[in-house]
Amino acid sequence: MARKLDDVMAALPKARQQRVEARAMELATLKDLRLAAQQTQEQLATTLGVGQDTISRLEKRSDMLLSTLRHYVESMGGKLELVAQFPNRPPVVIEHLGVDAGPDHKPAGAGRRARATA
User: Where in the numbering of this chain does the HTH cro/C1-type domain appear (predicted)?
Assistant: First the structure.
């Protein structure tokens, strides 16, 4: 016989319920973020200047560019931060990833390739 998740959760000790809820928050999806911001796919699509179908596809992807994710989060009023965590060291916030550096920016090694082919 099938059991409802709410019934299973209610049967767990309070400490276990809290751990399960904390872990569930770590696994938030883009859809969860959008719903928490109380926005529809249509509203977010309008903000980003894309179609609703594009938002639907983004929310189903498991891999995307950091710039795409940053635009998605910022369009809801949030800020995307990427943090690298290493054993026995404090976390490091990685900045400027997924940010357009402008027309004068050259990717690392671009000059080397240009000279090598010249």
Answer: 30-60
